[in-house]
Known about the structure:
alpha/beta
Amino acid sequence: xxxxxxxxxxxxxxxxxxxxxxxxxxxxxxxxxxxxxxxxxxxxxxxxxxxxxxxxxxxxxxxxxxxxxxxxxxxxxxxxxxxxxxxxxxxxxxxxxxxxxxxxxxxxxxxxxxxxxxxxxxxxxxxxxxxxxxxxxxxxxxxxxxxxxxxxxxxxxxxxxxxxxxxxxxxxxxxxxxxxxxxxxxxxxxxxxxxxxxxxxxxxxxxxxxxxxxxxxxxxxxxxxxxxxxxxxxxxxxxxxxxxxxxxxxxxxxxxxxxxxxxxxxxxxxxxxxxx
Length: 276
C-alpha cells in the first residue's frame, strides 16, 4: 500500500515486456496507485499492445483495474514530427477514454514551432471530448528540450507538461526552473542516473529507453524536483532497466522501484517542511 501523501504510479516503460493488464497486477502487488499504459507502439522492436475498444487486452486490463483498484492514469506515446498524425492520436484517445485515462503523453521532433503549436492545439481540443489532456514531455534529444519552451507551448496550445527527472538532469535543469513551470506540470516521472551524461544522441536514447537507475540510487536531484512541485502532483516511476529485469524479474523490479520512490518522497517531505 502507498504510504505517501502523493499518488505514485508505475509507468509502462519500467516494465515494457509486461502487458498493461499484467502491469496493473504488478503495480498493485508493489503498492502503486496507478499505472501508465502504452497504447501505441513506439519502436518496431517493442511488443505492440492493442487496447482499442473491443480488444481482448482492453477487457483484461479493465478487469485488472476492477480487481485491484489500481487505475490507468496516463496513456502514451506519440512523437509529433510535423506530419498529419490526427488519426493516430484519435485512436489513442479512443483507447484512453476506454481506460478512463486522464492524460496522453506527447513528445516532439518537429522543429517548426508554429506548426507544432498548431498541432498541439488541435490535439488538445480533440482530447477535451475524451476527458483527456495532452502532456508534452521535455526530452533531452528531441526538439522540445527545455522547460521554458515546453511552458510556452503549453500556454499557447492548451496542453500541459510531463517532466522526467532523467531528462531534467540531462538538460541541466534546476528544481527552481521546474518550480517556475509548476502551473503547467501535470505529472513528474521519477528515475535516477549517473552524473556523467552520455556523450552522443545514441547514448542518450539508449539510456532513456533501456538503462535507468532506481530512484535515489544515482546522482539526480529527485527529492528536490519533487519538492519543487505542489504536493498533489502525481508521480510516476519511469525506470526501465532491461538488464536488471532480465536478472531479477518483473515483480522484484517493481518492488525495488516502489521502495526507492518511497525514500525519495520521504526526503522531499523533509525538504518541504524545512522550507516552511
